[in-house]
Design brief:
Helices cover about 50% and strands about 10% of the residues. It is built from 14 helices and nine strands. The strands form two sheets. Strands 1, 2, 3, 4, 5 and 6 form a six-stranded parallel β-sheet that branches. A three-stranded parallel β-sheet has the order 7-8-9. It has helices at about 1-25, 25-35, 70-75, 90-115, 125-135, 155-165, 200-210, 220-230, 255-265, 280-300, 315-335, 345-360, 390-395, 400-429, and strands at about 40-45, 80-85, 120-125, 140-145, 165-170, 215, 235, 265-270, 365-370. By secondary structure, it is of the alpha/beta class.
């Protein structure tokens, strides 16, 4: 009997010890475990084709905010690489030039995955691909198209883009396209289509048919409402935040957010300082303006304000984009030494937007994006190497592992699955 009692006491002590051990997991340990176990997806990273050559490419730790070494350091599993083309004239000449630009970016992404670093990164076309590639230990590339302008008037190009791997497309960027009005029309209340053009409405149906997610991060509010109304599948905002917290026209107001919920879509909160906290951003931007200019002057390179970019020549734009990461990196390092530097927009501001949208539309409809190398990046998440910090902030705010998994990509993959399933159903009907 004594032996039995002794055994029970030992088992009880062991059990208590195990429970105590579990309870003693630190916040950092918990975050590390969660960060390793969930699939982390960033839905918007811009690229420069000059960084996809045999000698200079994403297998190297470049000054770019996104590349393979930084993804590895930060535990970022999936990057959506963006085929972006700025808005130009609605002419055959403009379309032809834009098409050339878009194709060069598709080619660059494929070269990275198929020639430069096929042992490190692979292109995914669906959620099953994502899970398989992550399990294999490689990073994942997916392709989004920011601005359908390069498609021109040839609707067959949507299938071409799909076959090249595009899994989301936005119908406008900064400026009205042949498909859709842009949010930029809000500044002077000038519109080209009062939402979508006839071609834009056809584009919605075509993307539904092909299984391409419709991205509403840049179109006008009226265009977004029309897309939601017309689409037979859920849609996404690939990089947008909450307008209630920051009044930028790029953000979604409560009405739009509730429409996204009703549609079954997902809003990918973006780590872009001017879309998160206007007051802090403007104070910091004013302070940094002179520093960036000083850095550019010291390097003997031209530097421009974001508002000037659209007026630059192609050569000037290319030179600016080449130098942009370097100037930003040096400028931020200098700012860290300045005691009078205004506080930068940070991860806390970013997660404030996540909190707001989760409360308004639910955990199933919110996600995460950075807009790295396209103007994104905040204090604490300045590049992919700092991705872990986002998970840490979510854990500190009380989000569970299941909720963090949804935010970091589960919701986005669910929408992709729905879009592709509906496309199959439409093809069979």
């Amino acid at each position: 009997m004594k032996q039995f009692i002794y055994l029970m006491c030992v088992l009880s002590i062991v059990s208590c010890a195990e429970k105590k051990e579990k309870k003693e997991e630190t916040t950092l340990e918990k975050t590390q475990r969660i960060h390793e176990e969930v699939i982390t997806i960033d839905t918007h990273n811009d690229i420069n084709v000059k960084n996809f050559t045999d000698s200079v490419n994403y297998s190297q730790r470049l000054d770019t905010q996104i590349n393979l070494p930084k993804m590895e350091e930060g535990g970022l599993d999936v990057t959506w690489l963006i085929v972006y083309t700025g808005q130009d004239t609605l002419t055959d000449e403009g379309y032809a030039k834009a098409k050339e630009n878009a194709m060069s970016k598709f080619e660059a992404i494929h070269k990275l995955c198929e020639e430069i670093a096929p042992d490190q990164i692979e292109l995914a076309l669906n959620s099953a691909d994502v899970k398989r590639i992550v399990k294999s230990g490689k990073k994942v590339a997916m392709i989004g198209v920011e601005n359908a302008y390069p498609i021109g008037l040839d609707m067959d190009q949507f299938k071409v883009y799909h076959d090249l791997g595009a899994r989301y497309i936005s119908l406008a960027h900064n400026g009205h396209s042949q498909f859709s009005d842009s949010n930029t029309g809000e500044a002077d209340d000038e519109w080209l289509h009062n939402g979508l053009s006839v071609l834009g409405k056809e584009a919605v149906a075509e993307m539904n048919r092909l299984g391409i997610m419709i991205d509403v991060s840049h179109p006008s509010k009226e265009a977004i409402k029309q897309m939601i109304s017309l689409s037979k599948a859920p849609i996404i905002a690939s990089h947008s935040s909450a307008r209630a917290l920051c009044g930028h026209s790029r953000n979604l107001d409560d009405e739009q957010l509730l429409m996204m919920k009703e549609n079954g879509g997902v809003v990918q909160t973006v780590a872009f300082s001017s879309y998160l906290n206007t007051e802090k951003h403007e104070a910091r931007a004013t302070f940094m303006k002179s520093i960036y200019q000083q850095v550019a002057d010291s390097l003997d390179i031209a530097w421009y304000e974001r508002s000037q970019f659209s007026s630059l020549s192609d050569v000037e734009k290319a030179a600016f984009m080449d130098n942009y990461p370097k100037v930003l990196k040096i400028g931020k390092e200098i700012a860290e030494t300045k005691s009078d530097a205004p506080e930068a927009v940070n991860i806390s501001d970013f997660v404030d937007h996540i909190d707001y949208m989760v409360k308004l539309i639910g955990i199933d409809h919110v996600g995460i994006s950075s807009d790295f190398d396209g103007g994104g990046g905040i204090e604490g998440w300045n590049d992919a190497s700092e991705t872990f910090n986002v998970t840490l902030e979510l854990v500190n705010r009380g989000y569970t592992q299941e909720e963090i998994e949804k935010l970091w990509g589960g919701n986005l993959l669910r929408v992709l699955d729905d879009v592709q399933r509906i496309a199959k159903e439409l093809g069979e009907s």
